[in-house]
Amino acid sequence: MTRYAMVIDQRRCIGCQSCTVACRTWNDLPMDIIYNPVVTEGVQGAWPHVHRTWTPLLCMHCAHPACVPCCPTGASRQDDDGTVWVDAAKCMGCKVCVNACPYGARDVSRMAPRFEGYVRKCTLCRDRRALDPTAMPYCVRTCHQKARVFGDMDDPTSEVAKLVNAVETVRLFEELGTDPQVYYIPALGGQL
């Protein structure tokens, strides 16, 4: 069975925000919602050995998402491939799932009338994959540094499975038991 995951190599990320712009463009997002923010962790170390780290964030598409079972209308869903998404037709915008998500990956727009009333979040470009199962999420496709890798964790020959099994990776808030499916290869620190 397919189980989608993403690996983000922080050694390669330069904080260019291409993933953020690509995601915003593809999803036609209102200005108050960002699915893929890139957090700058600032300069670390002492001169002349300093480095900067960027952490791209997105929905973690958890194997055990806290946001799905708490939804009173069943609008928060998870596909068999692990993709977590919101059925806009069923969502009443109560924000229970927004509060349940430990990653801050969900929000309701208050700027664009056509988006008001339902929760929005990253779907790993589920709509693109419905048209073409080999399609990559736009944030992956746009990353010119190749810092993002997307694929099937259940396929041992996939690049994501090889990376997770070959190098040290970390996941955000693993201790919460959500089993996030976004893995980070931490930046080792370099020199600016």
Record field, number of beta strands: 7
**Rg from Cα:** 17 Å
Helix content: 10-25%
Q: How far apart are the termini?
A: 43 Å
Q: Beta-sheet strand percentage?
A: 15-25%
Give the strand line-up of the largest sheet. Answer: 6-1-7
Quickly give the structural class.
alpha+beta
Mean pLDDT across residues: 91
Offer a quick outline of the entry.
This protein has 192 residues and is an alpha+beta fold. The chain has helices spanning 18-27, 96-100, 126-131, 138-142, 159-166; strands spanning 4-9, 38-46, 49-56, 76-78, 84-86, 148-152, 182-185.
Protein architecture, described:
The chain is an alpha+beta fold and 192 residues long. The protein is built from five helices and seven strands; from the N terminus they run E-H-E-E-E-E-H-H-H-E-H-E. The chain has helices spanning 18-27, 96-100, 126-131, 138-142, 159-166; strands spanning 4-9, 38-46, 49-56, 76-78, 84-86, 148-152, 182-185. Strands 6-1-7 form a three-stranded mixed beta sheet. Strands 2-3 form a two-stranded antiparallel ribbon. Strands 4-5 form a two-stranded antiparallel ribbon. A hairpin with a 5-residue loop joins strand 4 and strand 5. The longest helix is centred in the N-terminal third of the chain and has 10 residues, at 18-27. The radius of gyration is 17 Å and the shape is globular. The chain starts with a strand and ends in a 7-residue tail after the last strand. The mean pLDDT is 91.
Blueprint of the fold:
Layout: E1 4-9, H1 18-27, E2 38-46, E3 49-56, E4 76-78, E5 84-86, H2 96-100, H3 126-131, H4 138-142, E6 148-152, H5 159-166, E7 182-185
Parallel strand pairs: 1-7
Antiparallel strand pairs: 1-6, 2-3, 4-5
